[in-house]
Amino acid sequence: MVTKIREMNIDDLPEVFHIGESLFSSETFPIMYRTWDEYTVTSLFNNNKDLCLVAEYNDKVIGFIMGTIFEKSQSPWKYGYVVWLGVRKRYQGSGIASRLYDSLEDRFKELGVRIVLADIEATNVKALKFFEKKKFERTASYIWVKKSL
C-alpha cells in the first residue's frame, strides 16, 4: 500500500475532524472525547501548520497527526507535544501511525526539539504500546477525575 505523508491543508480539516470523531468517542475515551472539537482542530492547524500532517491513500486522507512546540522560560530546551494521532480503523496496524509519527519527529528535530511528550489515557492500551515501541518512557501516573451533573 503506497501511502503519502504530507502537510495538512485547509481542505483536509473536515476529513481529519471526522476521522477523529470516529475514533475519540465518548464511550471509548470519555476525557479525550470532550477535548476533540472543531475549534481544537482548526486552532492547531492555524498555529502549527508545519506540525499537522496527514496520510493519504488513493487521494483520500486515512490518518493524521497534530503536534505543537512549547518552551518553558526556566529551561533552554524546546518540547514537542503530540496532541492528536489518528488512523481510520480500517488502516490501523498497517504502519501508517508509525510513519506519521516519524515524520512529525523529524520536523521536531529540525526545529530544535529535545524532548517529545504525549499524554494517553491509561485504558488506551494500543496507544501505550505504540508509544513504547517509539521508545517513549512512562514518566508518571496521573488520574483524570470527572463528575457528571
Cα end-to-end separation: 47 Å
Total helix count? 5
How are the strands of the largest sheet arranged? 1-2-3-4-5
Element order, helices and strands?
A: EHHHEEEHEH
Q: Largest beta sheet, briefly? A: 5 strands, mixed
Here the CATH topology equals: Aminopeptidase
| Rounded mean pLDDT score | 88
Q: What is the CATH superfamily classification?
A: Gcn5-related N-acetyltransferase (GNAT)
How large is the radius of gyration? 15 Å
* Class inferred from helices and paired strands: alpha+beta
The poorly predicted ranges are none
Sheet-strand content, in percent, reads: 25-35%
CATH top-level class: Alpha Beta
Describe the structure.
It is a single chain. With 149 residues, the protein is of the alpha+beta class. It has a single domain (4-133), classed as Aminopeptidase, CATH 3.40.630. The chain has helices at 13-23, 30-35, 38-47, 96-110, 125-133; strands spanning 4-7, 52-57, 60-71, 78-87, 113-118. Strand 2 and strand 3 (60-71) form a beta hairpin.
Give the SSE layout.
Elements: E1 4-7, H1 13-23, H2 30-35, H3 38-47, E2 52-57, E3 60-71, E4 78-87, H4 96-110, E5 113-118, H5 125-133
Parallel strand pairs: 4-5
Antiparallel strand pairs: 1-2, 2-3, 3-4
Question: Main traits of this protein?
Answer:
149 residues, Aminopeptidase, 5 helices, alpha+beta, globular
